[in-house]
Amino acid sequence: MNLKQQLKLYLENREMSATQLSKKSGVSKQVISLWLSGGKPRNIEQVKSVAETLATSVDHLCFGSGIHKATSGNFVEMPDDGWFTGVFEIKVRKIKS
């Protein structure tokens, strides 16, 4: 699943609108609308804020496969596709010879 699918799933399961998410997370309605229409996030801080508001991780919000069981006992976790997904950061530095 991608951000668009995950975001729609979380909003549906929490019976929350994009406007409500915008107010709670501090991320503009336009940005959330862009993500819901398939646009790519440009600011990781905005993604972090939305993930925190939805009580999930950035990793799961962007690459997960359904709702985490840990977020609430009322939601059902969707089947995993078997792939390990995540956000990775690599730092490269030049070493003087």
Write structural notes for this entry.
Residues 70-85 have low confidence and may be disordered. The longest helix is centred in the N-terminal third of the chain and has 11 residues, at 3-13. With 97 residues, the protein is an all-alpha fold. Helix content is 44%, strand content 0%. The chain has a single domain (3-71), classed as 434 Repressor (Amino-terminal Domain), CATH 1.10.260.40. The chain starts with a helix and ends in a 34-residue tail after the last helix.
CATH superfamily: lambda repressor-like DNA-binding domains
Sheet/helix structural class:
mainly alpha
C-alpha-based Rg, rounded:
15 Å
Count of spatially separate domains:
1
Beta-strand fraction estimate: under 5%
Overall CATH class: Mainly Alpha
Order of helices and strands: HHHHH
Number of strands: 0
Please summarize the sheet with the most strands: none
Chain-averaged pLDDT:
78
**How many individual helices?**
5
Residue stretches low in confidence (pLDDT < 50, at least 5 long) are 70-85
Provide the CATH topology: 434 Repressor (Amino-terminal Domain)
CATH architecture: Orthogonal Bundle
